[in-house]
């Protein structure tokens, strides 16, 4: 029986993914900063017949991450699947640009994932098997207005795991990169273009995880649109995105397939 660790599991995508992975067998370990939602999730999984454990931890604290994950593995066995869900971003403006905002998003989206990976990867390499899943975003495809820091952080995350995937070829460890577009949370009444309810998005992502897909990006409309933008001259692509920005600003909608600021 294998153990799966899901980070950012107190709410949103992480919580839904953990719940949907639980019926597959094995133990689900859930990690986040708040203990109460994690304990509720553990009880929910166990009441459904699954096995679950919680880790209260801030992924941006490297020493804490390594200590707590080592303690978990000593108690329940090695982690064979790591699902990195914690992350997020927020809208920013050039008039209020702060390097600290960019640093915060990099710490959360990139270094938070790297800290968890450092804690788990040596054991996977020693055993010669494992599966690493990174939740990125369609925002990684290009720099988007209103969230250049977020786009940069997700691009860095995707590039990091693309390189690792090649380095891990032949080592028995698979790497999956998931890139969703707009995700609509349960409590949100705001609709955005081609958004997907969080439970539906989690179901699609779990299928990709279980099939050990190399990459999975969705929904197809934004995927094709962003791919087409990359084929255009930069000046023309900027003009197209600028027009969309103007329209979405008028409608008070964000044009960004972004996660929330961070998991609670």
Give an overview of the whole structure.
The chain is of the alpha/beta class and about 260 residues long. The chain is about 50% helix and about 15% strand. It has a seven-stranded parallel beta sheet with strand order 3-2-1-4-5-6-9, sandwiched between helices. A two-stranded parallel ribbon has the order 7-8. Helix 4 (about 100-125) links the parallel strand 4 and strand 5 (about 130-135). The protein has helices at about 10-20, 35-45, 60-75, 100-125, 150-165, 200-210, 220-230, 235-250, and strands at about 5, 25-30, 50-55, 80-85, 130-135, 175-180, 185, 195, 215-220. The chain contains eight helices and nine strands. The chain has a single domain, classed as Rossmann fold (3-Layer(aba) Sandwich).
Structural class: alpha/beta
Question: How is the main sheet built?
Answer: 7 strands, parallel
Quaternary class:
single chain
Number of strands: 9
**CATH class value:** Alpha Beta
């Amino acid at each position: 029986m294998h153990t799966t660790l899901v980070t950012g599991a107190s709410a949103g995508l992480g919580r839904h993914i953990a719940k949907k992975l639980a019926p597959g067998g094995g133990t689900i370990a859930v990690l986040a900063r708040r203990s109460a939602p994690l304990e509720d999730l553990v009880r929910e999984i166990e009441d459904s017949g699954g096995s679950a454990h919680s880790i209260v931890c801030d992924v941006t604290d490297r020493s804490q991450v390594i200590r707590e994950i080592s303690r978990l593995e000593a108690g329940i066995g090695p982690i064979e699947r790591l699902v990195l869900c914690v992350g997020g971003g927020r809208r920013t403006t050039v008039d209020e640009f702060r390097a600290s905002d960019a640093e915060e998003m990099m710490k959360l989206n990139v270094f938070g994932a790297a800290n968890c990976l450092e804690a788990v990867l040596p054991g996977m390499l020693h055993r010669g098997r494992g599966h690493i899943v990174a939740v990125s975003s369609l925002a990684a495809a290009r720099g988007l207005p209103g969230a250049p820091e977020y786009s940069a952080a997700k691009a860095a995350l995707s590039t990091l795991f693309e390189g690792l995937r090649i380095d891990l070829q032949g080592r028995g460890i698979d790497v999956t990169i998931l890139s969703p577009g707009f995700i609509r949370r349960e409590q949100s009444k705001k609709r955005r273009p081609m958004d997907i309810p969080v439970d539906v998005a989690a179901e699609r992502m779990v299928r990709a995880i279980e099939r050990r897909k190399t990459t999975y990006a969705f929904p197809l409309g934004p995927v094709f649109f962003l791919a087409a933008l990359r084929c255009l001259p930069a000046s023309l692509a900027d003009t197209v995105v600028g027009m969309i920005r103007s329209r979405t600003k008028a409608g008070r909608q964000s044009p960004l397939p972004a996660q929330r600021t961070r998991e609670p």
